[in-house]
Amino acid sequence: MNVPCVRVPTSEGEATRRVLAERDLVDRSHEITVRDGSLYIPVTDAAAARAEFDVVEFDAAARETQTMPADVLGFDPTYERLGDVVILDEDDPDRAREIADAIADSALRARTVVNRASKVKGELRVREWDVLVGESTETVHREYGCEFLLDIAQVYFSPRLATERHRVVEQVGEGERAFDMFAGVGPFAVPMAKRGAEVVGCDLNDAAVDYLRENARRNGVEERLTAVQGDVREAAADYEDWADRLVMNLPHSADEFLDAAVRLAGEECVLHYYDIQHEDDPFGPGIDAIRAAAEPAYDVRVDTERVVRSYAPHEYNVCLDVTLFAR
Q1: Which of 128, 169, 239, 315 could form a disulfide with 191 if both were Cys (CB 3.0 to 4.6 A apart)?
Q2: How far apart are the C-alpha atoms of 154 and 108, rounded to whole Å?
Q3: Closest Cα partner for 317 from 258, 254, 257, 262?
Q4: What CA–CA distance (Å, rounded) separates 223 from 220?
């Protein structure tokens, strides 16, 4: 059957396979195939792979030696993978248990299976989990050459935003001063530091900041990354007029922190502002909020209006890339 595959010359095949494996993108339920001088590597997330590689539809043979959850259940369950933790989102606890047991009995690499037990809640943006298989909710997630240790019970993390994070990080230049205002465990901050930026990451969550420091160490950027625990509105006093780039990934309430962003911004500063808005006007409210906070001290240029993903019926998670120019 046709499945998404990364197509590369055979001479680059093994190196490419290793990169995809590090990012947990290799679809192990289908065979890697050589044809006409090209290697076809099946992938689990075409969008994430397409950011860097040529992705095509290819008739890759299924691996008959692996038993997958669908083989055990008789239907194809929906789940998300984060490192070696498999995440379910089932309202029926009996169905969740059935799927978890099938995953445990399959060839799927999973140490822990959890089911969402609450929505993201509180100012620390964490959720509760029902642990159905295994014990630990701590895992290592690999993304675009970086690795992140995290505990999903203590911190917020979305693997679905990997492509969007990579888009932003690719814009970062060596020697920049970048400030991640809601850094979490470092999925923006760490790769920005790997590109040679001097980075400050701030977060209110003590556990997230501990993981941020550990992830800086794991990825060899501890000398270029400063982790700050606390409210960024207070931390901004120590970094006024400092930043060449700001990341504001707190889409439900980023507008409440725009005054702090303006304090942090240097003479010319790129702002990546994340928002959730209705489909009728997904960008206008964010642009208006940025202008209200930045003007007249700064001229505001809107560089990119981007829909990141659908968030809810008729609502989008969006990003505005904006450049602020001091007057």
Answers
A1: 169
A2: 25
A3: 254
A4: 8
Q: Which domain holds residue 37?
A: 2-59
Distances from the Cα of 181 to the Cαs of 127, 245, 254, 260, in angstroms? Answer: 21, 10, 10, 9
Asked if 215 and 186 count as a contact pair (C-beta separation under 8 A), the reply is: yes
Q: What pLDDT tens digit does each residue of the chain (327 aa) get?
A: 789 999 999 888 888 888 888 788 888 888 899 999 899 999 998 988 888 899 999 999 887 667 788 888 888 898 988 889 999 999 999 999 999 988 888 888 788 999 998 888 777 788 889 899 988 999 999 898 899 999 999 999 988 899 999 999 999 999 999 999 999 999 999 999 999 999 999 999 999 999 999 999 999 999 999 999 999 999 999 999 999 999 999 998 999 999 999 999 999 999 999 999 999 999 999 999 999 999 999 999 999 999 999 999 999 999 999 999 999
197 part of a folded domain: yes
Given 3-state DSSP classes, what are the helix, strand and coil percentages for the chain, each rounded to the nearest 5?
A: 30, 35, 35
d(CA 23, CA 216): 18
Q: Please tell me whether residues 162 and 234 are part of one structural domain.
A: yes
Nearest to 238 by CA among 249, 226, 250: 226
In a domain, 149, yes or no: no
